[in-house]
Design a protein that fits this description.
Low-confidence stretches: 355-368
Largest sheet: 7 strands, antiparallel
Radius of gyration: 24 Å
Distance between the termini: 31 Å
Helix content: 10-25%
């Protein structure tokens, strides 16, 4: 298991990563997701051994790799790395690039491993091609194959798909996931692209200002965000005011929201609830109406941004044959199945109906 325990990294007097904690089992794929400058690439460099921590521990499969007192050299960690610019050796052909890290194997074993990876990456017959003759997607496949060739215990990918066009990324990301699973390889991707993160990873760490706000599966990040930042950064959605009217119900501009069991929120307390686009659907007959202020056509459906009578904004989905204009008023039906509630003065979740648990805010919570 790869384990990071309260890892902190700094450049001089400036702390860039603060108390990062997560783990990855063999065969699991993780991702560090966040805006530019949040510390995700620095954290990856710490895992690779390029940066010495100022606090915490990195260990893998029972072996301590980094502490403030001692750091195992990168070349002794058996970690593969793929960079944003691919970094293929221009003087070596495809086979030579892939076999670069296989010098401990004899020629026959090298050739077998190269052929195996070319087949896995859909590049049979490319052995003698030179890097300059390859497309961007082909270069990326070769770079990944080279990093995976020695069967590292961990593969690190720093914005590995950012130089590819959108259509190519959509096709290559699930392909890379399939290959990593085939190889039973542990991996971490750094990206700011949610589609990449959700398409590739089993576990995603959402970062902001050097902290991991939540390390969880993509489904949980979307439906059970732990902090206000995760709720607003992952996917689309709006936070609208609500009030606890008794022990099991909240009321907002979208009506009354029932929860299973007791929500534990003081009656009359003002809170905010997260409303995702798929929580509200268009319905002419609904008593809830709003004015369309923005329209996004998604092919199979329209996504409207709607201003409610009280001034709040929510998203609403409508079938693709339904066409309205900005300024039109439409009826909406709320279907909020996962009720996520935030205190108006705090960052952490105070209630999550998918867990049926009232989450007490701890004094040690760094996001308050």
């Amino acid at each position: 298991m790869l384990s990071l325990e309260n890892l902190s990294l700094a450049y001089g007097d400036k702390t860039v990563v603060t108390e990062a904690t997560f783990s990855l089992e063999l065969g699991e794929i993780g991702c560090l997701l966040g805006p530019s400058g949040c510390g995700k690439s620095t954290l990856l460099r710490g895992v690779a051994g390029f940066e010495r921590p100022v606090g915490g521990v990195i260990s893998m499969d029972g072996r301590v790799l980094s502490t403030p007192a001692s750091v195992v050299d990168p070349e002794r960690r058996h970690i593969g790395m793929v960079f944003q610019d691919f970094a293929l050796f221009p003087h070596l052909d495809v086979a030579g690039n892939i076999a670069f890290g296989l010098r401990e194997l004899n020629r026959k074993e090298q050739n077998r491993r190269v052929e195996e990876l070319l087949e896995l990456f859909g590049l049979p017959g490319y052995e003698k091609r030179m890097p300059h003759s390859l497309s961007g997607g082909e270069q990326q496949r070769v770079a990944l194959a080279r990093a995976m060739a020695p069967k590292p215990t961990l593969l690190l990918m720093d914005e590995a798909f950012s130089n590819l066009d959108v259509e190519l990324r959509l096709s290559i990301v699930p392909e890379v996931r399939r290959i990593l699973k085939h190889e039973n390889m542990r991996a971490i991707l750094v990206t700011h692209d949610q589609a990449e993160a959700f398409g590739l990873a089993d576990r995603v760490g959402v970062m902001r200002e050097g902290r991991i706000h939540q390390w969880d599966g993509p489904h949980a990040l979307y439906h059970r965000p732990a902090t206000r930042f995760v709720a607003q950064f992952v996917g689309e959605g709006e936070l609208i005011p609500a009030t606890a009217i008794d022990g099991t119900r909240l009321r907002s501009a979208l009506g009354t929201h029932d929860v299973h069991g007791e929500h534990g929120i003081e009656v009359g307390r003002s809170v905010e609830i997260l409303i995702r686009p798929d929580d509200i659907y268009h319905d002419h007959a609904s008593e809830f109406t709003g004015e369309i202020v923005d329209i996004s056509f998604r092919g199979s459906h329209y996504q409207y941004l709607v201003r409610l009578e009280g001034g709040q904004h929510v998203y609403c989905l409508a079938a693709s044959h339904h066409s309205r204009e900005i300024g039109d008023w439409i009826g909406m039906v709320p279907k909020v199945e996962s009720l996520v509630v935030f205190d108006r003065d705090e960052s952490s979740v105070v209630f999550d109906s998918t867990l049926d648990t009232f989450l007490k805010t701890l004094l040690v919570n760094p996001f308050i």
